Amino acid sequence: MPLFAYKALSSSGGVQTGEVDAADRPEALRVLDKRGLQPVSLKESASAAATAKKKAKEAAPAAKAAPAPKSSPSAKPTLKAPAKSTEEKAPEGPLKLKRAEVIMFTEELSDMLAAGLQLEPALKSMEGRQELGGLKDVASRVRQLVRDGMNFSTAIKRVSPSFGPLYCSLAAAGEASGALDEILRRQAHYLKTLAELQSRLILAMIYPAFLILAGIGVSIVFVTTLIPQLTTLIESTPGGKLPGPIKFMVTGSDFLKSYWYIILIVLAAGGLFFKAWKDNPANTMAWHRFKLRAPLMGPVVTSRFYVQFLETMANLAGNGLPLLRALELSRDATQNLSLRNELNTVIDQVGDGRAFSKALIRTGAFPPLLIDMVSVGEQTGKLDMALRRAAERYDKELDKSLSRIMALIMPTILIIMASLIGTMAYLMITAIFQTIKNLGA
């Protein structure tokens, strides 16, 4: 069995060196883990490797000189099943997590890293937490990959798709800058804000959804029952004529009754066509540009990009990363392709020696206030602080935009439903009065 020379940190913080017998490198890592040691370096001992080669050379001539045993005709061959290692496990697929579990994992890990723990001991500590439930499996698998030399961002991407490309890109930026705990803390805050927004949106949409369902029910009753009865009543009276709007509604009612399935097929086909168009790589850029210019969605997407970009840049620049490398990592964490192209332009100009604020002006995609704050940070030599203040400002703008949208949802739906039902009621009352007038004449 080969020997592995190791250098590791003990639980008391001291450095230990020595050798360990193991079949391979992963087993050696497991042995050190059981001893409570965190490996700093681990490699096969040179003396052990030389000894193994020497024994192999000595065993080769002996194996050639030894005569092969003859098997008797009556002897039956025996088949030996290959030995299975107790450590061997069936391949495991990616784990799917809920958003609440991703938030809990991020908060736990960021807290332990901020407290001074290294990444692997922090993940090991999460494995022993009973209240984490299924997250223990995620922590265990991520720790195994990290212990084998894989980056944390790559490990979480392989273990679970629930983290998403943005999360993994920000984790990679945190590893590069040495501020993984700060990046994870801000990412947990962002995920919690997003979850809170979705819960607020769901709660705010309960009453409008009830109004929409009630309005649809009333409209169906009007179109299928009341309007046909009223039409029959008007046509049976002497000189009764249907008003123009009533005729239009009757025609629409007949059309819906006769061709409702065609309407559903057309709507489904339109939805599938739009999804196929949106997912086509040739149209992805146009769709991302539209999201930036949409009436209500555009300001939210833009403000969210500013907050994410400024916070990421502030963390990277504050931890001593060069400006060009910080811009590249921030670009990789941007999901909108149109904005990513703008950042490519900024990176090219900064690489050519232009100032960061001047490069932002050249793109035309960044507001003057943001550029002014960046310029002040460049002049004072405190770019990270200027970026962080700008991020806080645009975070407030994002919250205002979301609050404005939430405030507009309720009155908009109320106005639409009131207009629809009020128009139907007005037309029916007008038709009834016209019928009464005809009967009186």
Automatic annotation (TrEMBL):
> Looking at the record, which segments are called Disordered?
35-93
Q: Where is the composition biased (Low complexity)?
A: 41-51, 59-84
What Pfam families does the record point to?
T2SSF
Coiled coil regions, renumbered to chain? none
Lineage, top-rank taxon, reads Bacteria
Q: Which InterPro entries match?
A: GspF/PilC, T2SS_GspF_dom, T2SS_GspF_sf
Bilayer-spanning residue ranges: 201-227, 258-277, 405-429
Membrane topology listed for this record: Multi-pass membrane protein
Main localization, broad class: membrane
Question: Where does the Type II secretion system protein GspF domain start and stop, copy by copy?
Answer: 105-228, 309-430
This protein's UniProt keywords: Cell membrane, Membrane, Transmembrane, Transmembrane helix
Cellular compartment(s): Cell membrane
Q: Which PANTHER family has this protein been placed in? A: GENERAL SECRETION PATHWAY PROTEIN, TYPE II SECRETION SYSTEM PROTEIN F-RELATED
Q: Which family does it belong to?
A: Belongs to the GSP F family.
Q: What is this protein called?
A: Type II secretion system F family protein
